[in-house]
Specification:
The protein has about 70 residues and is of the alpha+beta class. The protein is built from 1 helix and 3 strands. The chain has 2 domains: about 30 residues; about 40 residues. It is about 40% helix and about 30% strand.
Amino acid sequence: MNPIKVAIEEVNRMIAKLNEEKLRLQNACNHPGLISVQKSDTGNYDPTHDCWWVEFTCPNCGKFWREDQ
């Protein structure tokens, strides 16, 4: 088998393992100092397309997510 392909597959396995560990840590975090920013998209021609959401960022673990309002 091609040695570069083997190396890339090993790197991809390591990345997947690290992503799983990052997710585990982010899920265990209690998100101290959580930053929330309210956002919106309004003034559309069709007001039924107006929307509002909140973006959250944890400065501790780096987790970012949105919640519709």
